[in-house]
């Protein structure tokens, strides 16, 4: 029996030496976890056992040392957890080795081609944390430009500045059509200026300068003027607003005329439709009476009864037919007279008929063929005209009158009213001289209104010029409006610009309000508070601005929160903006939370995804698969996936690797111990052999 015990010992020590040798061999393998062999004795029914056996090979998942590599694609896990890899064959494996490379198509893989997995990011770089875990890929497409929409700045304006003192002069362009012309440039004074860069929709950098001047109008108040690439927009000065009111009035006059025109046409068509329905009802009654054997008198009674029932059932009054068009005003008699004239004409024709068949045929006559019906229809149109014009705004009543007169004249008295309605529908309001004249008069009236209380000669001259341009236009109304829009309103540069704003500070030096200018009701300028102290800045994409019409209009707001007015030098404390030009991918970095960042040449970064970590209830139950990979088993439990730093999962150390947790000194000691045990078991076999030889030789 001694032979078998010794042989089991030799076998066990051989396995232990194998584990020790494997540990030593992998002492420099990144992420390697050492193993150890456990033994158990083998019992027999006798008091002496049958030797030993290997009961288990245990994995040691203790943390190895973390060493810096200065390679941004090397990753280590500080704490518990495993990287999740998808192998080329589709199977999932787990590893502590985070040495990655990026393939030509952007996949992040280890040396064996297994792709690391995590949470994907959308096109804007938002990580879909908690979603499906997928193989991570870095998109190498260029980052498109993004226009600036928000600027944040805080500054201190020197409270010691006095209005009109210590000023500098800024020379700016006010007309980009001819920027070299001296007349296209103006100057203004300022105490302090700041500069920052914004970006338009094409990624072009736009230099923004803001000039601050201490205002004499109020204490602790400053005027800010915004200039882009040397251009100062004066389109919204009082001149522009005044002339804009004239233009808006001309456009409103045109719209009212068209609306009135359409109301009248709709009313005419609706009444015509009702007449046709009434005719059908009367024809049906006549035919039914004839079929029942009624004589001529009976047919006439049936037709009259049908007409009364139709009127009662349909309630064909003007207020109900045209309520949406005539603002609820009733002109019932005018409309009902049309129906009464038609019914009267049918009765006369039926009475004069030779027999019952002729009475039935009389109901087929055109409802508007009878002269009395035509007169009644014309009276209805006239009443409708008066009602619609009466409901038009007072200032625009003349425009409405000209529009309704045009349609009435288009439907001249006579036969074939349907054809005349069609002709009226095709009439072009914009070519009617009376309508054009009415619109021109509106422009004159508005010009007088907007100039009330205005003393600035530039404003007066500019508005007069717009009115003159309108009156000089004799073509279509649309051309009148175009002329008003295109008219040069002149300039009153000293008033304010499109992007001006005021800052007012409290007596403790903090910002109390920000306002932007508008034309006051009685003339002059007033500054209206802006929300959250964020004035909105606009530079349109036209030939008048440096944008040149190539990009979209540039619009952004400026947050001035935190700005102060203390007795120190004027200074900018902070400035930032959210726009950027286009950029190409120049590198990839990984954050300690596993976020994979794409870095672009425009100094912007976007997330490409987030590396996920996996934990297990019993990591020692994992099955080694080689290549530093393990697979899950029933003993390990199911994987628990999450972001680094959550749950029991550790954080990621970028530009570092986790070395093997093999303790070489201990392994060498174990090797010596195993060697001695192996030799002792060999000696046991030798001794047993000598004893057997002695017994045999007896």
UniProtKB/TrEMBL annotation:
<dbReference type="Pfam" id="PF00460">
    <property type="entry name" value="Flg_bb_rod"/>
</dbReference>
<dbReference type="InterPro" id="IPR001444">
    <property type="entry name" value="Flag_bb_rod_N"/>
</dbReference>
<keyword id="KW-0975">Bacterial flagellum</keyword>
<dbReference type="GO" id="GO:0009424">
    <property type="term" value="C:bacterial-type flagellum hook"/>
</dbReference>
<dbReference type="GO" id="GO:0005829">
    <property type="term" value="C:cytosol"/>
</dbReference>
<dbReference type="InterPro" id="IPR010930">
    <property type="entry name" value="Flg_bb/hook_C_dom"/>
</dbReference>
<dbReference type="GO" id="GO:0009425">
    <property type="term" value="C:bacterial-type flagellum basal body"/>
</dbReference>
<comment type="function">
    <text>A flexible structure which links the flagellar filament to the drive apparatus in the basal body.</text>
</comment>
<feature type="domain" description="Flagellar hook protein FlgE D2">
    <location>
        <begin position="482"/>
        <end position="580"/>
    </location>
</feature>
<dbReference type="InterPro" id="IPR037925">
    <property type="entry name" value="FlgE/F/G-like"/>
</dbReference>
<dbReference type="InterPro" id="IPR037058">
    <property type="entry name" value="Falgellar_hook_FlgE_sf"/>
</dbReference>
<dbReference type="GO" id="GO:0071978">
    <property type="term" value="P:bacterial-type flagellum-dependent swarming motility"/>
</dbReference>
<dbReference type="Pfam" id="PF06429">
    <property type="entry name" value="Flg_bbr_C"/>
</dbReference>
<keyword id="KW-0966">Cell projection</keyword>
<dbReference type="InterPro" id="IPR020013">
    <property type="entry name" value="Flagellar_FlgE/F/G"/>
</dbReference>
<keyword id="KW-0282">Flagellum</keyword>
<comment type="similarity">
    <text>Belongs to the flagella basal body rod proteins family.</text>
</comment>
<dbReference type="Pfam" id="PF07559">
    <property type="entry name" value="FlgE_D2"/>
</dbReference>
<feature type="domain" description="Flagellar hook protein FlgE/F/G-like D1">
    <location>
        <begin position="76"/>
        <end position="126"/>
    </location>
</feature>
<protein>
    <recommendedName>
        <fullName>Flagellar hook protein FlgE</fullName>
    </recommendedName>
</protein>
<dbReference type="Pfam" id="PF22692">
    <property type="entry name" value="LlgE_F_G_D1"/>
</dbReference>
<feature type="domain" description="Flagellar basal-body/hook protein C-terminal">
    <location>
        <begin position="655"/>
        <end position="698"/>
    </location>
</feature>
<feature type="domain" description="Flagellar basal body rod protein N-terminal">
    <location>
        <begin position="6"/>
        <end position="33"/>
    </location>
</feature>
<dbReference type="InterPro" id="IPR053967">
    <property type="entry name" value="LlgE_F_G-like_D1"/>
</dbReference>
<dbReference type="InterPro" id="IPR011491">
    <property type="entry name" value="FlgE_D2"/>
</dbReference>
<feature type="domain" description="Flagellar hook protein FlgE D2">
    <location>
        <begin position="179"/>
        <end position="234"/>
    </location>
</feature>
<keyword id="KW-0969">Cilium</keyword>
């Amino acid at each position: 029996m001694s032979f078998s015990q010794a042989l089991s010992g030799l076998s066990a020590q051989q396995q232990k030496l194998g584990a020790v040798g494997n540990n030593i061999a992998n002492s420099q393998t990144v992420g390697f976890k050492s193993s150890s062999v456990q033994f158990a004795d083998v019992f027999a029914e006798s008091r002496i056992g049958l030797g030993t056996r290997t009961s288990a090979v245990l994995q040691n998942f203790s943390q190895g040392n973390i060493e810096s590599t200065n390679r941004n694609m090397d990753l280590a896990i500080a704490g518990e957890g495993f990287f999740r890899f998808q192998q080329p064959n589709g199977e999932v494996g787990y590893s502590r080795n985070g040495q990655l490379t990026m393939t030509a198509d952007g996949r992040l893989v280890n040396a064996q081609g297994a792709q690391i997995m995590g949470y994907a990011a959308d096109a804007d770089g938002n990580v879909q944390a908690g979603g499906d875990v997928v193989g991570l890929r870095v998109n190498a497409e260029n980052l498109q430009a993004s226009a600036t929409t928000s600027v944040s700045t805080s500054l201190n304006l020197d409270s010691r500045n006095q209005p009109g003192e210590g000023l500098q002069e800024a020379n700016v362009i006010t007309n980009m059509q001819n920027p070299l012309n001296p007349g296209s440039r103006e100057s203004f004074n300022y105490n302090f200026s700041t500069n920052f860069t914004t970006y338009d929709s094409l990624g072009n950098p736009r230099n923004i300068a803001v000039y601050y001047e201490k205002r004499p109008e109020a204490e602790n108040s400053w005027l800010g003027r915004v200039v882009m690439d040397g251009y100062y927009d004066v389109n919204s000065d009082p001149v522009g607003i005044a002339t804009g009111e004239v233009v808006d009035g001309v456009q409103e006059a045109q719209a009212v005329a068209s609306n009135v025109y359409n109301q009248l046409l709709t009313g005419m068509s609706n009444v015509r439709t009702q007449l046709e329905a009434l005719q059908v009802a009367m024809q049906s009654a006549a035919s039914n009476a004839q079929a029942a054997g009624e004589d001529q008198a009976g047919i006439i009674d049936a037709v009259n009864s049908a007409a009364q029932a139709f009127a009662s059932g349909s309630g064909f009054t003007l207020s109900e037919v045209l309520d949406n068009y005539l603002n609820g005003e009733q002109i019932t008699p005018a409309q009902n007279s049309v129906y009464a004239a038609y019914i009267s004409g049918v009765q006369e024709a039926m009475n004069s008929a030779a027999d019952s068949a002729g009475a039935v045929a009389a109901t087929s006559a055109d409802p508007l063929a009878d002269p009395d019906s035509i007169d009644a229809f014309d009276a209805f149109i006239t009443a409708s005209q008066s009602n619609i014009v009466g409901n038009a705004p007072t200032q625009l009543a003349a425009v409405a009158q000209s529009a309704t007169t045009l349609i009435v004249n288009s439907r001249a008295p006579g036969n074939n009213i349907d054809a005349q309605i069609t002709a009226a529908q095709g009439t072009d309001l914009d070519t009617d001289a009376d309508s054009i004249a009415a619109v021109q008069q509106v422009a004159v009236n508005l010009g007088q209104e907007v100039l009330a209380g205005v003393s600035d000669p530039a404003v007066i001259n500019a508005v007069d010029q717009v009115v003159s341009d309108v009156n000089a236009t004799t073509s279509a109304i649309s051309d009148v409006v175009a002329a008003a829009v295109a008219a040069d309103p002149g300039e009153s540069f000293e008033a304010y610009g499109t992007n001006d704003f005021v800052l007012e500070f409290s007596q403790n030096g903090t910002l109390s309000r920000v306002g932007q200018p508008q034309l006051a009701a009685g003339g002059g300028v007033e500054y209206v508070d802006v929300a959250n102290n964020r004035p909105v800045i606009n530079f349109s994409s036209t030939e008048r601005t440096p944008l040149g019409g190539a990009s979209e209009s540039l619009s952004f707001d400026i947050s001035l929160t935190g700005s102060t007015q203390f007795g120190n030098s004027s200074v900018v404390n902070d400035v930032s903006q959210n726009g950027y030009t286009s950029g190409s991918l120049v590198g990839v970095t990984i954050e300690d939370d596993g976020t994979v960042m794409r870095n672009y040449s425009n100094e912007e970064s976007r997330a490409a995804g987030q590396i996920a970590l996996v934990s297990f209830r019993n990591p020692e139950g994992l099955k080694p698969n080689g290549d530093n990979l393990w697979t899950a088993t029933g003993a390990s439990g199911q994987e628990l996936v999450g972001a680094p730093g959550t749950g029991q999962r550790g954080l990621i150390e970028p530009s570092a690797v986790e070395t093997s947790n093999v303790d070489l000194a201990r392994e060498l000691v174990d090797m010596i111990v195993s060697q001695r045990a192996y030799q002792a078991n060999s000696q046991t076999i030798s001794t047993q052999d000598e004893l057997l030889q002695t017994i045999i030789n007896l």
